[in-house]
Amino acid sequence: MIDAGVLKAEWTKFSSIRSTMVLSAATAAVAGLLGWLFSSTAAKEYATATPQERLDFQPLDLGMRGVFIVQLLVAALGVLVASSEYGSGTMRATLAAVSSRGRLLAAKCGITVLTALPVSVAAVWLMFATSQMTLSAGGAPAVMPGDPVALRLLLFGPLVLTLLALFGLSLGFLLRGTAAAANVSTAFLLLPVMAGASPGFLRDLIGVYWPSMAALQAVSGKSELPGALGFGLLAGFVAVMLVAAYVQLKNRDA
């Protein structure tokens, strides 16, 4: 259970840290900018494309490519919820004030979800709206929000990003440093993107079963796995990471 008093205290700390508030606002702004940049390029390419290339044009995929960058920012937001206290040296006081470390972790998870979810909704929806309007204005095909695949992305995409914020939170507790946790989360999330240069078997394995990629592919309708399984891989992985974070928090001093 999440203690309301602990949750309120965590929100006070979170909102008082300038970097977390700036990162929250920047994530949505960057999402809109990336949607415009990628779709502008795609619209120009469509104008000079061959008939076959126009048939193969995927407006949703092209317009939402920036989500692979936005996921890094959302994960970093989760990192800051935990690591900022280690960096400032206030974690020891926090642990002394909260009798149960499980309650503290639960409150941190609550703050992460309450922050990352609206930020993720704003980022995904703004990127979608900006990208599809830009494609349409440039004379290229665009997808409407009522399209089944687009609707699934708009509804479940923010949930995937929120899970990645919890992944970042777990790394913040495990590594106890903003730079280290952010670097590890970045490497973890970008590995599937860079796996294109890997041997075929390894590339296919990472592209299908890597937790973050499996979930993103599931919500975009491109997964070779059932949608629930792709999302479940990420949810299960994050749950394991949070259990590891709890063990670390329980057994080590600040």
Automatic annotation (TrEMBL):
**Lineage of this protein's species?**
Bacteria, Bacillati, Actinomycetota, Actinomycetes, Streptosporangiales
Q: Which UniProt keywords apply?
A: Membrane, Transmembrane, Transmembrane helix
Q: From which domain of life does this come?
A: Bacteria
Is the Acetylation keyword given for this protein?
no
Species assigned in the record: Nonomuraea jabiensis
Regions crossing the membrane: 21-42, 62-83, 104-129, 149-175, 187-210, 230-249
Record-given protein name:
ABC-type transport system involved in multi-copper enzyme maturation permease subunit
Q: Does the keyword Transmembrane helix apply?
A: yes
